[in-house]
Specification:
- With about 80 residues, the chain is mostly helical.
- The chain has a domain at about 20-75.
- The chain is about 75% helix and about 0% strand.
- It has 4 helices and no strands.
- The longest helix is centred in the last third of the chain and has 19 residues, at about 60-75.
- The protein is globular, with a radius of gyration of 13 Å.
- Belongs to the VEFS (VRN2-EMF2-FIS2-SU(Z)12) family.
- Keywords: Metal-binding, Transcription, Transcription regulation, Zinc, Zinc-finger.
- One of its GO terms (cellular component) is nucleus.
Length: about 80
């Protein structure tokens, strides 16, 4: 994903240990875009799964990212629940 690669370069993610933090930060920074575009959201989830398969991301971080996206999705569906 071009967005992820650009984010990594800007944030200077150099060590494997920084990947969980970067995933959370990316989700918070680009969450609205991910929620508005289901295909982009799907690509982000596939990328997180690939990072998990390589041992760079843990299930806890994936859960945090997905829960954040779910909150944004529910706020988008019902703006009064903010």
């Amino acid at each position: 994903m071009h967005m992820w690669n650009s984010f990594k370069r800007r944030q200077r993610i150099l060590a494997d240990g920084h990947v969980p933090w970067a995933c959370e930060a990316f989700t918070h920074q680009h969450g609205q875009e991910l929620v508005q575009n289901p295909r982009l959201r799907w690509c982000w989830r596939v990328l997180m799964i690939k990072l998990w398969n390589h041992g760079l991301l843990n299930g806890r971080t994936m859960n945090i990212c997905n829960k954040h996206l779910e909150v944004l999705e529910s706020q988008r569906a019902d703006p009064k629940q903010s």
